[in-house]
Protein 1
Amino acid sequence: MSAVLKPSRIAPGIELSDPAAVADLLDDGAQAFLAELHRRFEPARQACLAERRRRQAGFDAGALPDFREDTRAIRDGNWRVAPVPAALLDRRVEITGPVDPKMVINALNSGANCYMADFEDSTAPTWDNLVAGQRALRAAIAGTLEFTADNGKRYALRPEDERAVLIVRPRGWHLDEKHVLVDAGPDQGGRGQRMSAALFDLGLFAWLNATALAAKDRGPYFYLPKLQSMEEAALWNEVLTHIEHELGLPQGQMKVTVLIETLPAAFEMDEILHALRGRIVGLNCGRWDYIFSYIKTLRAHRDRVLPERSQVTMTQPFLKSYSELLIQTCHRRGAHAMGGMAAQIPIGNDEEANEQALARVRADKLREVTAGHDGTWVAHPALIPLAREVFDERMPGPHQQHLGREEVIVTGRDLLVPSLGTITRIGFENNVEVCVRYLAAWLDGNGCVPIHWLMEDAATAEIARTQLWQWLHAADGGNTPLHLHDGTVIDEALFDRVLLNLPSRLAGQPIPGAGRVQEAIALLEELTHRATLEEFLTLPAYERI
Ligand SMILES: CC(=O)SCCNC(=O)CCNC(=O)[C@H](O)C(C)(C)COP(=O)(O)OP(=O)(O)OC[C@H]1O[C@@H](n2cnc3c(N)ncnc32)[C@H](O)[C@@H]1OP(=O)(O)O
Ligand SMILES: O=CC(=O)O
Ligand SMILES: [Mg+2]
């Protein structure tokens, strides 16, 4: 049951693309609630985004990220976050996935401890996907969600006490929701302002479900993505405090786990925990966005160019330091240190290749539990038993916060240390292929696809996209160009040749979103040739869906 606002609080001002089609979700009360979120928090969101641009200009001019002098007292202080609620104490295996009804049922039934329902990296934010996702989650919480596939297979929820605990991930601060416009006025040419996508996803989910979840003492719980600073965390805290007040929930009822998946945020882990200390239960190593952010933040630092994607594993020193610092920081503050996602997924038609893929996932989970992580992510239900076995064997209790990892000393230099490795022709061509295929699927409404038996989503595709840009533009300003391992110069001509040959390489393969491949090629070509690096692939792509 959704909360009810007093009539006087119902304000006009929201413009929806097709109000009748979503009247079941976005009634007058929901609209007023969302409009109020926009009016209260949009200026602060824009200020945070402006601050991101200001900081980046400094990095582009040669500065490097560092720990903040003005927040030393927070880092040195002796404080802990609020206690973790019972439902989130044991999070050893979390499954993640998009929010279509079949996925929601499969994930909740999967046997994982938690399910992160993802409106972000693995969802292409078409209006239909977002609306279907909100409906599916509301029905799941009510226990009524069912689904029948085109092949007739029927899906229903297991009993509530056998389902994974639901955690919802809204989109990040940088994205707008173009189907929800607020307060049309002359200064916007008669149209309203686009609402923040993050506030829309989280706000609507909370409006629809907070009361029901709080009644079961199940949250709502959220994963917050792509934060870059403690100010962004503080903004989330204000938003959540406001929502709790409006919906009549106890303060701190809504819990969050923050993904540390940007390079600037790695220098503010304590500060982010502190800003959210009344409600934060953990940090998560979002490794794929973190690698993307490392490339993006250090785009102008020629000495820190990364090797090809397949060589950027969690054993690279800068990634090892990041995960160890996260574990140490969380455990010192009473929070869980969640691990992340290995990209390998089961390979159905090749037993040997499947064994190798599973061995890599197992090695990744073993590294995580040994280092002190309190839980991990899997991309696919078939990986749950494997991850559980590794964590069960090494983590007898519900978590391992007692492992302080005090011996770990991570400096700013360690978080930024250059990586060794190469860029092979296969690695270069693979980046081009992944970008095009992922983008084609995304434009077609599918935000997560297997490519060469790896899970690809917005974060992994961003690594491929920003690497191509950085490798090509490394020669800007008169620098010597980078070379492939075989000696070939990396330049625009090489990129153009690979892109031109791609359609014939893809011919005959079943490609999700095949009808959008040419559009994806055109967009990648434009973004890669451009003199400045586009901040997020999904910003220009969103204008095309
Ligand atoms: C960087 C990050 O942000 S990581 C977090 C974001 N990424 C994710 O969440 C990845 C989610 N995973 C997926 O979307 C999928 O596993 C993919 C796209 C990688 C592979 O999907 P598929 O090719 O459909 O896998 P496959 O055919 O083996 O699926 C078998 C069954 O498992 C289900 N399944 C697969 N992944 C999931 C999942 N994550 N959650 C629930 N069910 C799943 C499928 O729906 C299918 O169900 P069915 O037998 O009832 O039809
Ligand atoms: O969201 C997770 C990541 O790795 O990125
Ligand atoms: Mg991410």
Note: The two ends are 32 Å apart (CA to CA).
Protein 2
Amino acid sequence: MDAIELNNLHVSLQNKHVLHGIDLIVEKGEFMTFLGPSGCGKTTLLRTIAGLHQPERGVITIGGRTVAEGASGLHVEPAKRGLSLVFQSYALWPHMTVFDNVAFGLQVRRMPKANIAESVGAALEKMRIPELAGRYPGELSGGQQQRVSIARAIVTRPEILLLDEPLSNLDAKLRVEMRTELKRIHQELNTTIIYVTHDQYEAMSLSTRVAVFFGGQIVQVDKPRDLYKHPRTLQVAEFIGNGGQHLNHLNGRIVIENGRRILKTQIGLFPLEGGGLLHEGEVVLTIKPEEIRLSEQNSQDSVPAVVEAVFPAGAETLVQLRAGEAVLMARVMGESDAEPGDMCYAALRRERLNLYDKRTGSRLENLVPLTHILEDTLHENRLSYSR
Ligand SMILES: Nc1ncnc2c1ncn2[C@@H]1O[C@H](COP(=O)(O)OP(=O)(O)OP(=O)(O)O)[C@@H](O)[C@H]1O
């Protein structure tokens, strides 16, 4: 059974229409991340699932049970939805010890004292902080407080754990540490997790699937690697992976010549395979810097290039190339011995190129993979390409 099903959810807050028709199925045991820029509605959706907001339209089903319905006004209260919510701000009670903070939810449920002690002990153990039981929140570091807030959320053994940017108040080192902990907790508890973040790295490294939000809508739901390989829109492509930093964009045009569709770009001509966009039109070709390989050898998939600049950055080196009329950024692992002025070939991974309709920003899914570049037309192309 699916853990959560959202059907055509619309949510307004103080007369502001924040969520515009959300459809989503979260499967049992998933680690689903809501990813998107600030203000796109991720937290609002999380809180609506938790029962802190009521949708004006649409239906929320948790474990097969309808817990909210806009049309009828049905609203199951948060405590009866079988889920726990962890806030960015930890929200611990300062006047209570760690033990009492974690025990609170069990005391409310009138669990016998001995069982409470056992459950709290197990939750603190799971978060690797049993020695902190007697301390007050004010005596803890940010990372320790966040561990306590997660212990408090898992102590009731919820079916579903909702985490709202739980790592955003932690410093970089603690974030890495807690990310590892969250992955472990998910594997050990096998709980369904919904996680809100605007950090692509967190989303990619933790999730089984990622839902990408823009402007109150979900624009793509995919496994991290599929999202990375084939963002569905240009907007998503720019947001994913380094926030789109250095993503190479090439303007191009699809033309039909002798019954064949040809993509004309500043770096060459590409014959196209597949369906989609049957007419001629303006497109954008995106190439990730890590998918350009520098080579001394020419090949079917490479274009001649000149090194313009080299930017060593420790674990990787960015190499700026000029290919035809275009500037391309390539990312090379480790050090590179390339030097400005070097002639080389930029080999492209064809299956990783993405083509987008320039007008709508949508990916032309059926037009990839591209077949090899027509080398004999490169020269002609440079002369004839015009936007
Ligand atoms: N209580 C509220 N009343 C009115 N508008 C609100 C309220 N809460 C959020 N909003 C608005 O709803 C929109 C979505 O906010 P939300 O907090 O869900 O975004 P988010 O994607 O989680 O952003 P962030 O990453 O900054 O937390 C924003 O434009 C915000 O200003």
Note: The pocket of adenosine-5'-triphosphate is lined by residues 13-14, 16, 18, 36, 38-44, 198 (CB under 6 Å).
